[in-house]
Write a structure and sequence with these properties.
Blueprint (H helix, E strand, L loop, with lengths): L2 H14 L13 H21 L4 H33 L14 H5 L1
Length: 107
Amino acid sequence: MSKTSSAAQAAGAQAKAGKRAPPASSTTSPVTDFEACLAELETLVARMEQGELNLDDSLGAFERGITLFKRCQQALDQAELKVQQLLEPGDPDSALPFQPDADDRAG
């Protein structure tokens, strides 16, 4: 199968999976982007759990899911940093990126 054919099938799987989250932009708030990505991710997971996708569509949906997961994680990291900055308004430079505990990552 050619790359073009695979890309077309992956795009078709994404279109079948429902609305795509808009690309992150400077005009989209992190909260809006997070909610759109999470909604699309939930739709992808539901479709994959139904077991009705062929292998190519499943791989395309999985790849899209990884991208959405990363965008969600970035939005959560930004939110955590913002909370830290709000808790320490006199010293915003003391805010450090959120580092989850080993227990948080395992669960």
